UniProtKB/TrEMBL annotation:
This is Exonuclease. InterPro entries: RNaseH-like_sf, RNaseH_sf. Keywords: Exonuclease, Hydrolase, Nuclease. One of its GO terms (molecular function) is nucleic acid binding. The lineage of its organism: Bacteria, Pseudomonadati, Planctomycetota, Planctomycetia, Pirellulales. Gene3D superfamilies: Ribonuclease H-like superfamily/Ribonuclease H (3.30.420.10).
Length: 172
């Protein structure tokens, strides 16, 4: 099993009514060399300007991005080539990121290579610390820029720190 850290940016709160604009993924292993970046053409006429602004793209720019079918197919191929065994989805906010990736895989690829499960990085850290008020974000080395590859790398760095310095038992 390979852990894949994922981060997405969207133009609204839910998939279907709104669109996933871009996402990044990083294979979690020392060096963090294996990455994926996808930019997707909107699937809906609805969008929230403040939500889209987080991505740094204009609506006009997003309309030039690749069709979701193409991007999700490429991501599935990357997962197949990069992962050892079934990939495990992990993110900083899996309630948000997972819903978009899962929905897009099912609608535009026919199935989700991650299966039906995901892991929340923040909850994992709270468990290690035995304190639900703790936050892992100080463990990031890569600055959080809202470019999804940067953000996924920072979160992957935090997970590696949890393993290497805090004794988290995890196979990476």
């Amino acid at each position: 099993m390979s852990y894949i850290m994922v981060d997405i940016e969207s133009d609204g709160p839910i998939p279907g009514d709104y669109s996933m604009i871009c996402f990044g993924a990083v294979l979690v292993r020392p060096g963090l060399q294996e990455t994926f970046y996808g930019r997707l053409k909107p699937i809906s006429e609805k969008w929230i300007p403040e939500a889209l602004a987080v991505s740094g793209f204009s609506r006009e720019e997003t309309l030039t991005f690749a069709p979701p079918q193409q991007v999700m197919r490429s991501f599935a191929q990357w997962l197949k080539m990069t992962s050892e065994g079934k990939p495990m989805f992990i993110s900083d906010n899996n309630g948000f990121d997972w819903q978009f990736i899962n929905w897009y895989f099912h609608h535009f690829h026919g199935s989700n290579p991650f299966g039906f499960s995901s892991t929340n990085l923040g909850s994992l850290y709270k468990g290690i610390m035995n304190d639900t008020f703790q936050n892992f974000k100080h463990l990031r080395q890569t600055r959080h820029t809202h470019h999804p590859v940067d953000d996924a790398k920072g979160n992957a760095e935090a997970l590696l720190t949890m393993k290497q310095e805090m004794g988290l038992k995890i196979r990476l």
